[in-house]
Specification:
single chain; alpha+beta; 14 helices
């Protein structure tokens, strides 16, 4: 169950209360008149089943509460109540399949912002991967993949496209491109600096690297893995499975490919630069396509489930009527 907290202008409390009372999947409605001070109004509290929350939030936004009051939705860690259990049973669909699109949009919007922290994480990840490439060290490669923040803007593009919000998709895509461009440029400079210090050399890049050669040699399996990672990433976001998202982050060679491209650029190695760039484009494209299609499929499936549940409820009501 989720906990819903609303600050509502007093003149609209009756209308909002009516919406909450007739919504399937709600329980424990409480109204505290005059409790809100900034903005002034009434405080409304209730619990709502996860699978019913997205539709309810849309109704509350349509009433102008996001503009004139506030709507806060958060996880209820524990709810011991028969009413709560009944509300979950009555809500259409399954909690594990429910998607809170408004919450997802807010999350991906925040993670798609070009900030100093975002660029610092991206550059640090690519630099770690560059060390892994030069040392042929798989541990450093995996560590860099876990540090990289690129899945934030990637998921932002997919989420925006699934809801057809082109402006938000363009914003996230811009953050993704900017992050990789800045990280590759700084890693190229860092590579030259480490070469001047005697820590890197062209021979380290040109030598045989059995462990990390995959980062600049794209193949058909690269696209397959990217597509699978896009599906897993979308599912992990919509179901709030952060552990699965970490697994996605270390399964696709986006950051290592960018690092290899930066090192190859620094040493003027054309074949590796082209191979790394192609690997990066293939992986990013695969994740975007698969993630977007997965979210669209989830949206359509949820809408179909809700229509079926409503039809069944209407049929049961008709049968039980006079």
């Amino acid at each position: 169950m989720l906990q819903l907290r609303i600050i509502c202008p007093a003149e609209r409390t009756g209308e909002v209360t009516e919406v909450l009372e007739r919504s399937v999947g709600t329980a424990h409605l409480a109204v505290v008149a005059g409790a809100a001070r900034q903005p002034p109004g009434d405080l409304l509290l209730c619990e709502v089943a996860r699978e019913a929350a997205d539709e309810l939030i849309d109704e509350l936004r349509a009433l102008g509460l996001a503009r004139d009051g506030s709507i806060v939705l958060q996880d209820a860690v524990l709810s011991l109540s028969e009413r709560s259990a009944r509300a979950e049973r009555e809500a259409p669909g399954e909690p594990a399949d429910a998607v809170l699109w408004e919450s997802l949009s807010e999350l991906t919007h925040e993670e798609s912002t070009v900030s100093v922290t975002y660029l610092a994480f991206m550059t640090t990840a690519v630099m770690i991967a560059a060390c892994g490439v030069m040392l042929d060290n798989a541990i450093l490669i995996v560590g860099a993949m876990a540090v990289g923040p690129e899945f934030g803007p990637l998921s932002g593009v997919s989420t925006a496209l699934a809801q057809w919000r082109p402006r938000q998709a363009a914003r996230s895509l811009s953050a993704l491109v900017t992050g990789f461009a800045v990280a590759i440029a700084l890693t190229t400079v860092g590579t030259l600096a480490l070469d001047a210090a005697g820590l890197f050399s062209a021979g380290m890049l040109g030598g045989r690297r059995g462990t990390t050669e995959f980062v600049w040699q794209p193949g058909r399996l690269s696209l397959v893995v990217a597509l699978l990672a896009g599906i897993a990433g979308a599912l992990s976001l919509t179901s709030a499975k952060s552990g699965a998202l970490i697994g996605v982050a270390i399964s696709v060679t986006t950051v290592p490919a960018a690092a290899n491209a930066a090192v190859a650029l620094a040493y003027g190695d054309g074949p590796e630069l082209r191979g790394s760039s192609l690997q990066l484009v293939v992986n990013l494209s695969g994740i975007l396509v698969a993630g977007t299609l997965t979210m669209i499929a989830q949206r359509l499936l949820l809408e179909r489930t809700k229509r079926r549940e409503r039809a069944l409820a209407a049929r049961d009501t008709a049968r039980s009527g006079p």
